[in-house]
Write a structure and sequence with these properties.
The chain has 10 helices and 10 strands. The protein has 341 residues and is α/β, with parallel strands linked by helices. It has 2 domains: 152 residues, ATPase, nucleotide binding domain (Nucleotidyltransferase, domain 5, 2-Layer Sandwich); 167 residues, ATPase, nucleotide binding domain (Nucleotidyltransferase, domain 5, 2-Layer Sandwich), CATH 3.30.420. A hairpin with a 4-residue loop joins strand 1 and strand 2. The longest helix has 31 residues. The relative contact order is 0.19.
């Protein structure tokens, strides 16, 4: 029987500095998150240099605060996001993780960012059993994955252009909403008529399980320009937002149901920032012919807890050797099955 182990998770792939402590017996002990939204808002998007500098400023104090509040002197292992993401931001987390690993003489395990999202529902009281289908939807990724077991991932579909979250943010920008626009668009959509505009459901009726949101975004842009030219944009903004969201959600749900049928899977995990979208959750609950699992809302976006639990599940691969691993692009399908212990 293995003894209880505590894993410190570190997330610095983009503009969120996340840390968490996860115990193999007790579950999540504590987590903390520092958001850089205010720093990047003036630029309308994430500035990589600013993101890296703020991770440097915040990461160690955040870890110290977390450890003190949890009453933990040192963890048994450290898990950090090694990719994909912004290389400069990733290197901050990798450097801190390996430095602390040497100082504390504990194991260090690099974690794939999307595997963290995929395993985030394992933090919940009713986690999914393997196998399951995963829909990972965020600002940088839209993936359908057949998850047979830990490390056994088959990518069934991906986006050919914009990710779902990126499409939400770009559409929000077209409508004059502040950064980050996705959540603001969803809120505005609550005031609109989602049948006001018949926007396309890209590739929904094609046999492929891949996604494409560029055509939907272009259709929205044309309607925005038409409304601006007529002086009606303010009156139609909520309807455009609602109709866009409906088209995007219909596409995501339709493709997911098709993927589940193709792969013969009856359980579904929906994770990533767009996984917090209420219309997506409601529609998936009504239409998916099986169980649907989500992380809690605060663990849909980037966070340290998902990295901690993913690292804890992969402790067999942890190493006490120094390795600064930071990978901008990294296929989830390339992950190996961990060695049995």
């Amino acid at each position: 029987m293995t003894s209880s182990k505590i894993t410190l998770g570190i997330e610095t792939s983009c503009d969120e500095t996340g840390v968490a402590l996860y115990c193999s017996e007790r579950g999540l002990i504590a987590d903390a998150l520092h958001s850089q939204v205010d720093l990047h808002a003036a630029y309308g998007g994430v500035v990589p240099e600013i993101a890296s500098r703020d991770h440097i400023r915040m990461l160690l104090p955040l870890i110290q605060q977390l450890m003190d509040e949890a009453g933990v002197e040192k963890p048994d292992a450290i898990a950090y996001t090694a990719g994909p993401g912004l290389v400069g931001a990733l290197m901050v987390g990798a450097g801190v993780a390996n430095g602390l690993g040497m100082a504390w003489n504990c194991l260090v395990v690099p974690v794939h960012h999307m595997e963290g999202h995929l395993l985030a529902p394992m933090l919940e009281p009713n986690p999914p059993d393997f196998p399951f289908l995963a829909l990972l939807v965020s600002g940088g990724h839209t993936l359908l994955i057949a998850v047979r077991a830990l490390g056994q991932y088959e990518v069934l579909g991906t986006t050919l252009d914009d990710a779902a979250g990126e499409a939400f943010d770009k559409t929000a920008k077209l409508l004059g909403l502040a950064y980050p626009g996705g959540p603001l668009l969803a809120k505005l959509a609550e005031e609109g008529d989602d049948a006001a505009f018949d926007f396309p459901r890209p590739m929904l009726n094609r046999p492929t399980l891949d996604f494409s949101f560029s055509g939907l975004k272009t259709a929205v842009m044309l309607e925005v320009r038409k409304a601006e030219a007529a002086g009606h944009l303010d009156a139609r903004r909520a309807d455009i937002a609602a109709s866009f969201q409906r088209a995007a959600v219909d596409t995501l749900v339709g493709k997911t149901i098709k993927a589940a049928s193709s792969a013969g899977l009856i359980r579904l995990v929906v994770a990533g920032g767009v996984g917090a979208n209420r219309l997506l959750r409601n529609d998936m609950a009504k239409r998916f012919p099986g169980e649907v699992f989500y992380p809690r809302f605060e663990f849909c976006t980037d966070n340290g807890a998902m990295i901690a639990v993913a690292g804890a599940m992969r402790l067999a691969e942890a190493s006490d050797a120094l390795e600064i691993k930071a990978v901008a692009r990294w296929s989830l399908a390339s992950l190996a099955v961990p060695t049995a212990v």
